[in-house]
Each structure stands twice: as C-alpha cells, then as structure tokens.
Amino acid sequence: MSRSYFIATLGCKLNQFDSADVEGRLQAGGFRRTGSPATADIVVVNTCTVTASADAQSRRLARRLRRESPDCTLIVMGCSTQLDPAAIESATRVDRTFGTGSGEGVARFALDRFGDTSSLARENSCAAQEFPIPSFPERTRAFLKVQEGCDLRCSYCIIPAVRGNSRSLPPAEIARQVLQLVETGYREIVLTGVNTGDYGKDLSPPTTLLALLRRLTVIPGLGRIRLNSLEPCTIDPGLIAFLADTERVAPHLQIPIQSGSDRILAAMRRPYKLSRYARVVETLRNRIPAIALGADVIAGFPGEGEEEFRQTREFLADSPLNYLHVFPYSERPGTPAAALDGKVAGPVKSDRARALRTLGDRLNFQFRSRFLGKTRTVLVLGAQRPDGRWRALSDNYIEMGVRGDAALVNRLLPARLADVTQSDTLADIAAS
Predict the structure, then answer these.
(1) Element housing 97 (H / E)
(2) Cβ neighbours of 206 (radius 10 Å)
(3) Closest Cα to residue 343, out of 272, 267, 274?
(4) Got the DSSP string for 373-402?
(5) Distance (Å, whole) CA 98 – CA 427
(6) Are the CB atoms for 58 and 49 separated by under 8 Å?
(7) What is the β-pairing status of strands 425-429 and 412-420?
C-alpha cells in the first residue's frame, strides 16, 4: 500500500531546497504527497533558527502537527534541531530529529518504518545522473543549493554554528543538476546558499559565482536563473557587467544591508561600510535600470539609538532599493551581540520595524508603478489566486495576476502591466 507524507517548511530558500530534497527522495521511495497532515503517515517539519521567535515558531508548528496527526511518524529536521534538538523533543512527541543537510537520513528513516529500503540501496548504487532530483509542488520554479555554510562571523548570527563554514558544490555537479531540472520542465532555477556570493573559493582549483553563471547560462533549454541573496562585498564589476549583458539571469538581487549606520555595522561585524554598500546598489541601478533590489534590515540592534535609526531610515528612503525584509533584533545566546550593552526595548524595536516595513511598502509601490503600461517577461506559476487569475512572477521580481487558461502555466511570456495598486499588480499576457 502506498504511504503518504506531508512536509511543512519554515525559513529561507535554502530550507525550501532541503525540503524539496527530502520530497524527491521520498517520492523515489514510493511515498506520495498529501495535502493534509491528518492523512499523512510521515510528517516532516523543517525548522528555522535564524531568530528566537523562529525557534518558538518551529516548536509550535511541531506541536500543532502532532495534534492534527496524533498517529503519524513525526520527523523534525533543520537548523533548530541542529542547534538544540532537546528543545524540540521536549515540546512534543517526536519520533526522530535530524539536523541540516539530512535528506538522505530522513528518507532512510521513513523507508525503514514504512517502505522498501532496497530503493535507497538502488539509489546509492546508481550513476549520479540517476539520483532523485528535488521535487517542488508547482513544478515551475526550482531551488538548487550551490553553496552551504558561511565564513562571516556577524555578531548577531547563529547560522555558522548550525551550517558550518562555507563550502561549494562542484560546478560540474551543479551543471548536471541544472540540466536535469531543465529536462524535468522547470523554467526558473533559483541558485541558493547561505552566502552564495562566496561560491567556489573553497574548491580546488578555486572558482567564482561568475564563472559558474557563465557555464550554466549556455545550458540548452534553460529558461532563466535567479540568484538568491548576495553579500555586498561579493558583488564586483565583472559580475555586474555579466548581469547587465545576459537575459538568462533574472535582473534581481537581494543584498543585505542590516543597518544604515557605520557604527552599528561595526558592532554587527559586517565587513563593509555604508559607502561601499551605496556604491554597489547605485552601480547596479545605473547599469541595469529595471533590476529589483532588495535588502535585509535589522531594527533595534543593541546600541541603536534614535540617531542611528534615523540614519538607517534616511539612507533606505534615498537608496535604489525597492523592497525590504525587516527583522526586529532577536537576541541569540552564544552570539557576541548577546553580550552587548545598549539593549533596545521591545516596543521600540517593534515601532522601528513597523516604520521600516511601511517605508519598504512605499519603495515597492514606487518601483512597480514605474512599469505600468510596460511589458516584462513573466513566468506563470501553477497556482490560481482567489480572483481566478494565475499567479505570475516577472523577471524583476514583481508578483502579479494574469488572466488566461491553464495552458499558460509554466511558460515564460511577455506581460503588460495593466494596474498597480498599493497591494496588487495585474497584467495582461501580450499578444504573440
């Protein structure tokens, strides 16, 4: 009898890849996906530990899924369990915990319980090109982890403790997986990593993200590649020139800033000053006018007074950025920032985060409004909105709704932006 699974994922695109890796392996072992944990034999929770609230959310989710499926085999994996498995195990009845990068272990445990372990033996004995590839529900966009870990030691960040130092997948293996994803039908492939811009420096011989992109963009049948977050110090003139000259890499970068105050950046142990960051984003906007530029920002870091917050808000308001991911500072025991003086009160952090999110909404509306009446290439995704339109994503990261039938799904098509409001973007597929 076919067994079923349900996967719930918290956190970043890297976690989405890790969950998709588990999903591909479970499907190769004969399991089928179900849309409800109540009907699943195996329930997997992929956790996040980037903040204390993410840890708490991971525990709450595990407890809720156990209530909804009291007889399931509950597996909890990921960053939170890598850091503190006991906290998850004490929160609810868990059958097994795994840390990061544990796709094969999760699949083996599931098959030991319910399946045929010979399928895993066959997997491990096959040629590399026969390994199961990650499985993504909409089957239009795929995430591919090309780099893991981080050599930066930002004072607030716990991620190096759970994902280790920077290490890269060999370029030939990445090219093989991209070709496999293209042949499977994925039209957009998002390259992910903890510090993707560091790609290749650990390999022998060393290589770079730019060299990898040059190799991948000539793969036959490729729709487009999208990059994940890049640290500002990894974006050099050669990479910018390549992005300006290719249509196979989406014009979109997320470049963490974290603060607009040099004093706070130093306390965060960020390896740049604000002037360096400004040069990077201004050069990108000048060379690639339509590019989407986003940033991560931390509100209320220890020592951030009204003046430092004002500097951050004013820099962001005048910058080329067009969307913000804002996080109130969350203290992580074991990080250097946890010992800093000048803690910011919780209500103040919340107010500052709210103000920055409002600013981010305004910047995003202004950016989307620039393209009203203009045409961008969109990927039509495999999900419909409540208004009956299909969800679509432009090359420059504008989410929108388009009219049409299911034949549009998983196609890269020109779309004319017909309406832009504070909360939505509508477009019409252009006549071919």
Answers:
(1) strand 96-97
(2) 10
(3) 267
(4) T-EEEEEEEEEE-TTSPEEEEETT--EEEE
(5) 43
(6) yes
(7) antiparallel
Least confident of 106-120, 152-166, 306-320: 106-120
Q: Which helix (H) or strand (E) holds 297?
A: strand 292-299
Give the burial class of 377: count Cβ atoms within 10 A of its Cβ; 0-12 exposed, 13-18 middle, 19 or more buried.
Answer: middle
The three-state secondary structure class of 214 is helix
Which amino acid, one-letter code, is at 34?
Answer: T
Length of the chain: 432
Identify the bridge partners of residue 148 per DSSP, sorted by sequence position.
167
Tens digits of residue pLDDT in 293-314: 999 999 999 999 999 999 999 9
Per-residue model confidence as pLDDT tens digits over 192-239: 999 999 999 999 999 999 999 999 999 999 999 999 899 999 999 999
The answer to whether the beta carbons of residues 299 and 268 sit under 8 Å apart is no
* Residue 202 burial (CB count, 10 A): 15
Instruction: Find the angle CA(395)-CA(221)-CA(247) to the nearest 5 degrees.
Output: 35
CB 143 within 8 A of CB 181: no
Tokens of 91: 């929160």
* Mean pLDDT confidence for 93-121: 79
377, 412 Cβ separation under 8 angstroms: yes
Q: Element (H or E) spanning 118, and its range?
A: helix 118-125
Alpha helices in 250-392 (DSSP H): 262-268, 274-287, 306-318, 346-369
What pLDDT score does 245 carry? 97
Of 389, 14, 375, whose CA–CA distance to 398 is shortest?
Answer: 375
The β-bridge relationship of strands 375-384 and 141-145 is unpaired
Phi and psi at 81, nearest 5°, equal -75, -30
Please state whether the peptide bond connecting residue 205 to the residue before it is cis, i.e. omega within 30 degrees of 0.
yes
Handedness of CA 52, 168, 43, 40 (dihedral sign): positive
